[in-house]
Design a protein that fits this description.
single chain; about 280 residues; alpha+beta; NE0471 N-terminal domain-like; Double-stranded beta-helix; 2 domains; 8 helices; iron; metal ion binding; EC 1.14.11.8; oxidoreductase
C-alpha cells in the first residue's frame, strides 16, 4: 500500500520594482557615519543601501509607505495610519543619512522617516528576493532504480512529529513522497492527508474513491490507460498536493507513472534555451 504525493507544477515568480533608467542627478544631501558598515547610492525613484554584505534596492514609495513614525504607523496594532494612496508616485527625499544603524530620510514636506538597517534587512522585498530559494532535487527513472524514493512508515508517520518533519522536508526536495503500510481504508487515507494539511473540497468532494465503473465522465473512471498529465490545472487555484492510495487491485495493469516536470523543464532549458 502506498500514498503518493505529487508536486504541483507551478512556480511562483518573485518580482520587484525595477528601474532601467539611469540615475537621476539631483541635489540631495547625503551623509553616513564612518562607524556604520553601510553605503548609499541614490537613483531617480529608489536608493540602494549596502548593509552587511547585502545590497537592498529600496523604492521611495515603499519607504514612505513603511515609515514607522507615530503619525504613519500604529505600533500597538501594527497597522498603518498613513493612507498609501496619498503618497506621490514621484516622491523622493530631500536628505538622506545613515546614523547609528538607522537610515534617516527627510521628505520634501518636512516629514522625517527613520528605519533600522537591521529591520530593513529583515523586511524589505529586496532582501526576500535574495533569500535562499527552496532547493529541489530533480529526478528521473533512476530514482526508482537506485531506490532513493523518500518514504516513511505509517505508524511512525502518524505518531512522531520528527518523522512528519523529515517527510515534509523530503517532499519539498523531491515533490513526491510515500507513506508505506497505510491500512487500506478511506479513513486511514484521510488521517494521513490531515496529518499533512487541510483537505480541500473540489467538484469531486474532499475525500473520494473511484474505480473503473464509468460513474463520471472522466477517463480515470475507466480502464483506459492514463498518460502523463497534471490534475486540476483548470482550477483557479490548482491542487498543491494530491494524495493517492490504492485500496484494492484485481487483474493486471494500473501502474502509476510519475514524472518530474521540473526535470523535463531543465532538460529543455539545457538543450533548447531559445524555446523557453
Amino acid at each position: 500500500m502506498f500514498v503518493r504525493l505529487q508536486r504541483k507544477l507551478q512556480t511562483q515568480l518573485l518580482s520587484g520594482l525595477r528601474s532601467t533608467r539611469a540615475p537621476l542627478r539631483v541635489k540631495l544631501q547625503t551623509r553616513a557615519c564612518a562607524s556604520t558598515s553601510s553605503a548609499l547610492r541614490l537613483h531617480s525613484d529608489h536608493l540602494v543601501v549596502s548593509y552587511e554584505g547585502t545590497q537592498m534596492r529600496l523604492n521611495f514609495v515603499w519607504l514612505r509607505d513603511h515609515c514607522r513614525s507615530a503619525s504613519s504607523y500604529n505600533s500597538k496594532t501594527n497597522q498603518r495610519n498613513l493612507d498609501t494612496g496619498s503618497i506621490e508616485l514621484n516622491i523622493r527625499p530631500d536628505t538622506t543619512a545613515v546614523e547609528g544603524g538607522h537610515l534617516v530620510l527627510t521628505w520634501r514636506d518636512g516629514h522625517v522617516s527613520k528605519y533600522s538597517l537591521n529591520w530593513l534587512a529583515q523586511n524589505s522585498y529586496e532582501r526576500k528576493k535574495q533569500s535562499t530559494v527552496q532547493p529541489r532535487i530533480l529526478w528521473n527513472s533512476d530514482i526508482y532504480k537506485n531506490k532513493n524514493v523518500p518514504s516513511a512508515k505509517w505508524e511512525k508517520f502518524m505518531s512522531c512529529d520528527e518523522e512528519l518533519k523529515q517527510f515534509l522536508q523530503h517532499y519539498l526536495l523531491y515533490g513526491i513522497a510515500f507513506v508505506d503500510d497505510v491500512p487500506a481504508t478511506v479513513e486511514a487515507t484521510e488521517a494521513v492527508s490531515k496529518r499533512v494539511s487541510l483537505i480541500r473540497e473540489t467538484t469531486y468532494g474532499g475525500m473520494w474513491s473511484f474505480t473503473s465503473d464509468h460513474s463520471r465522465g472522466d477517463s480515470a473512471y475507466s480502464q483506459l490507460a492514463l498518460d502523463r498529465h497534471t490534475d486540476t490545472s483548470y482550477f483557479q487555484e490548482p491542487c498543491g498536493i494530491q494524495v493517492f492510495h490504492c485500496l484494492k487491485h484485481e487483474g493486471t495493469g494500473g501502474r502509476t507513472l510519475l514524472v518530474d516536470g521540473f526535470y523535463a523543464g531543465e532538460k529543455l532549458r539545457q538543450r533548447s534555451p531559445e524555446k523557453l
